[in-house]
């Protein structure tokens, strides 16, 4: 089966490949690894590459894409590239310059998808996480609807083919959907989503509005001290996932990825390990039974790996809502 044909239609008529390659790596990982892993992923068949300004590796990821175009593996329009607008650029006048900065780093003319990374504005400036002298986050007050209008202008200018959001709860999505004079609906909402946090209510809400749910941390999460609650159990060690994996002669990671595809969720698989990158492409080679799906649904415990307590005082903190 050709993974490049495995796409879901977005509400603007464009198509997103249902399996994406995640490029985030912690600071201590050399940036050159993002270059090598992305090149390998494209060679292995990945066509959807997910990155962000926050990851500080768009230069390397862009280089990888351009080198695979140069060697004839892909054409630019074979690749679906996602970037994200960071929280320090949510003021409307900063949106386009932020996207232009990403494009300059990437050395690409456009991104396929540009999304608001978090609905929480922070003080503009060079610091990714601006703090006061007591180490507290410095918030900014921005109307997300005005940020969205600036995103719409980026789409009109051809700098982003599609626009969407990430980490929004249903009320924040409603706010944009109900905006007077809305020109384009968000095509997606990218959120943490895995068998321990299956986001079924948010998924139903998004489907009802024609918005695609994109899952990050779909395999649980990398155990990163700064971002992840390390006390939580490791998803891929779950006995039920192990049993279903054994039955299908697959890895627990493939079961977790396949689960999302069968729910109509676009799923991101993050790995810099070549063996696992290749293995993740096998997600199209088998199918889970309705019984498997129901059993995996039963694992849900609304457990968030991403530790966002640092942001929880922000007036627009999205995770206090049930969904």
TrEMBL record:
Keywords: NADP, Oxidoreductase. The active site is at 55 (proton donor). Substrate binds at residue 117. The record marks 84 as: Lowers pKa of active site Tyr. GO terms for molecular function: oxidoreductase activity. InterPro entries: AKR, AKR1C, Aldo/ket_reductase_CS, NAD(P)_OxRdtase_dom_sf, NADP_OxRdtase_dom. Gene3D superfamilies: NADP-dependent oxidoreductase domain. SUPFAM superfamilies: NAD(P)-linked oxidoreductase. Residues 19-300 form the NADP-dependent oxidoreductase domain. The keyword Oxidoreductase applies. The keyword NADP applies. PANTHER family: ALDO/KETO REDUCTASE (PTHR11732). Belongs to the aldo/keto reductase family. This is Dihydrodiol dehydrogenase 3.
């Amino acid at each position: 089966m050709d993974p490049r044909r495995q796409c879901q239609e977005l509400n603007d008529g464009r198509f997103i490949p249902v399996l994406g390659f995640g490029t985030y790596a912690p600071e201590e990982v050399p940036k050159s690894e993002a270059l090598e892993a992305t090149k390998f992923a494209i060679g292995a068949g990945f066509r959807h590459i997910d990155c962000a300004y926050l990851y500080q590796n768009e230069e390397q990821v862009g280089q990888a894409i351009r080198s695979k175009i140069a060697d004839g593996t892909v054409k630019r329009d074979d690749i679906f590239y996602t970037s994200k607008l960071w929280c320090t650029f949510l003021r409307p006048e900063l949106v386009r310059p932020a996207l232009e900065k990403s494009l300059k780093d990437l050395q690409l003319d456009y991104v396929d998808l540009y999304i608001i990374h978090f609905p929480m504005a922070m003080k503009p400036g060079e610091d990714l996480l601006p703090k006061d002298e007591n180490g507290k986050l410095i918030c900014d007050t921005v109307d997300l609807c005005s940020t969205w209008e600036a995103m719409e202008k980026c789409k009109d200018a051809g700098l982003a083919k599609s626009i969407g959001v990430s980490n929004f709860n249903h009320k924040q999505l409603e706010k944009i959907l109900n905006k007077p004079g809305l020109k384009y609906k968000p095509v997606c909402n990218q959120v943490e989503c895995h068998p321990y946090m299956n986001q079924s209510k948010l998924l139903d809400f998004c489907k009802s509005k024609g918005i695609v749910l994109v899952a990050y941390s779909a395999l649980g999460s990398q155990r990163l001290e700064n971002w992840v609650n390390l006390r939580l159990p490791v998803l891929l060690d779950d006995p039920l996932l192990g049993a279903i994996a054994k039955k299908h002669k697959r890895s627990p990671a493939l079961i977790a990825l396949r689960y999302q595809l069968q729910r109509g969720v676009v799923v991101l698989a993050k790995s810099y390990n070549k063996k696992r990158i290749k293995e993740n492409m096998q997600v199209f080679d088998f199918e889970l039974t309705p019984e498997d799906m129901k059993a995996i649904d039963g694992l849900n415990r609304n457990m968030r790996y991403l530790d966002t307590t640092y942001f929880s005082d922000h007036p627009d903190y999205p995770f206090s809502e049930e969904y």
